[in-house]
Design brief:
The complex is a heterodimer of chains A (180) and B (320). With 180 residues, chain A is an alpha+beta fold. Helices cover 24% and strands 13% of the residues of chain A. The termini of chain A are far apart. Chain B folds into three domains: 100 residues, Ubiquitin-like (UB roll) (Roll); 81 residues, 2-Layer Sandwich (Alpha-Beta Plaits), CATH 3.30.70.20; 81 residues, no CATH class. Chain B is 16% helix and 21% strand. In chain B, 41% of the residues are buried. The chains are: A alpha+beta (180), B alpha+beta (320). The interface between A and B is medium-sized, with 16 and 15 residues.
């Protein structure tokens, strides 16, 4: 029967001709292929010295945003955790005390907020579920570690620093949010 | 017995039944939503206007339609009455308007509110409300206050349904709270933050359709959809001792009464199974309870999210 892949070759063991037995023409033909590739543009880059530009829809490491006054947006509502298909997000909520109004925007805040970066599949559903525009996926790459435990990111890794804001304006303009 | 037709479904009910209860006998989509009516509490209903329905024919004797929409929770049926609920455009339009009115002063703080996920106003707004608000003025605001050491009152979220007032009147021997002032200034209040202290006062949390009265022992502890509702029993001298335990792992986060598909406390052995404060607030230890099985949750409810057990009970009991 004829094979469906259409790549079947009939093997023959007829003796090689004199030119074929010389080997030299075959070697030259092979070298020509190599030389042709030397003149072509390289497809690879020298990471990390060189880095590619990310698309605005790229989904990398998460950030927990603060508002203009530096207060945390997250209220620990748990919608990101319930939306997460990999169950990578956990949190414990806490009530805001008097005098902490400059730290947290709402009455309730996440006392601990953890994302297991080994579980996370970077689907962006947490970002989509968030009603407070608190969590965003950025164009940063989760760095490699030696220990598994180091991949569980707490608030120290996720919440942006007041003096080092992470720009997500490009990301806000994409997808569902961009249309509104 | 009188014969009524609700959304083209005919049913025979006893004389004096309200339209809402007749619709509940049919069940399913013909049941109008209700925010203030609570079948287990006498004289509740008639306040929120969400259950308004159109009466297309008053009765067999006088088949003229009623000119205005009527509150189905407080209008008794008549023989030959033809009622239109979901088949009526007027009702649908009106209900969207009522939701808009209820949300005028209701804050949109569902991400913070402990009631989110089992809130009737949330369901109502999702099903009947509009997607956008037209209200530009400031909402009236109050500071959340403690009434007693177990109950938190968020007056911001209150929709003035009077359910808690009726519950306190009918379940406890003296009521420590009520509604003061009138009209736009009406608010639930105690006499100068007096503690509500009674063995059955915790039931005001269960009857509250929104997050105005919440359990302080559960405040911000978790979200309802992360917890597993289990049916628990214990011998209690004050109440039926049959409750729903909201568990996370082997820990009881909160205890509530068993509620039916309308969010009302279920009847067990012919009696409404209100639970006492001791069961509700003090017994958070698994060893104090006998767990009889999982509470079956409607699979469309957010509470059933991420729970993979097979249903043990074949009879579907919806708790939300």
């Amino acid at each position: 029967m004829e094979s469906l892949s259409n790549r079947k070759k009939v093997v023959s063991d007829k003796p090689m001709t004199f030119v074929e037995r010389l080997y030299l023409p075959a070697i030259i033909r092979g070298m020509m292929v190599t030389l042709k590739h030397m003149l072509k543009r390289r497809k690879t880059i020298k990471y990390p010295e060189e880095q590619r530009v990310f698309a605005p829809v790229y989904r990398g490491m998460h950030v927990l945003k603060r508002d203009e006054e530096g207060r945390e947006n997250c209220t620990a509502c748990g919608l990101c955790a319930v939306a997460c298909p990999a169950e990578a997000i956990t949190m414990i909520a806490e009530e805001r005390k008097k005098g902490e109004e400059h730290l947290y925007r709402e009455e309730k805040y996440a006392e601990t907020y953890e994302i297991n970066m080994l579980r996370c599949i970077f689907c962006g559903l947490c970002e989509e579920a968030c009603p407070k525009e608190a969590i965003f996926l950025t164009d940063r790459i989760v760095p490699t570690e030696y220990e598994r435990g180091e991949f569980i990111y707490g608030k120290d890794m996720l919440v942006e620093k007041v003096d080092q804001r992470i720009d997500i304006t490009k990301r806000q303009g994409t997808g569902k949010r961009g249309k509104i | 017995m009188v014969k009524v037709t609700i959304d083209d479904v005919e049913i025979e009910v006893e004389v004096g039944t309200s339209i809402l209860n007749a619709a509940r006998k049919i069940g399913g989509e013909v049941v109008p939503p209700a925010m203030c009516y609570y079948s287990k509490l006498e004289s509740s209903g008639g306040k929120c206007r969400t259950c308004l329905v159109e009466v297309a024919a008053g009765s067999a004797a006088d088949p003229r339609p009623m000119p205005k929409l009527v509150a189905s929770c407080s209008t008794p049926v008549a023989d030959g009455m033809v009622i239109r609920n979901k088949t009526s455009d007027r009702v649908r339009e009106n209900r969207a308007g009522v939701v808009e009115f209820l949300l005028i002063n209701h804050p949109l703080d569902c991400p913070i509110c402990d009631q989110a996920g089992e809130c009737h106003l949330q369901d109502l707004g999702y099903e009947h409300g509009k997607a956008k608000t037209r209200y530009e003025e400031d909402r009236r605001t109050f500071d959340p206050i403690d009434i007693g050491d177990k109950i938190k009152l968020h007056m911001n979220r209150c929709i003035l349904c009077y359910r808690c007032v009726h519950a306190a009147d009918q379940l406890t021997d003296q009521r420590g709270h009520g509604i003061i002032n009138r009209g736009e200034h009406a608010e639930i209040s105690t006499y100068i933050e007096k503690a509500i202290d009674n063995d059955f006062s915790g039931n005001v949390i269960d009857v509250c359709p929104v997050g105005a009265l919440t359990d302080k022992t559960f405040r911000f502890k978790s979200r309802v959809w992360f917890l597993k509702p289990m049916e628990g029993e214990r011998t209690c001298t004050q109440c039926s001792g049959k409750a729903v335990l909201w568990m996370f792992g082997n820990e009881i986060y909160r205890v509530t009464a068993r509620k039916d598909q309308y969010g009302e406390v279920e009847d067990i052995d012919g009696k409404t199974a209100w639970i006492c404060n001791d069961c509700r607030f003090e017994k958070k230890d698994v060893s104090k309870w006998t767990i009889t099985g999982p509470r079956v949750v409607d699979r469309h409810s957010v509470i059933s999210q991420g729970k993979y057990e097979t249903k043990m009970n074949t009879k579907i009991k919806r708790i939300n």
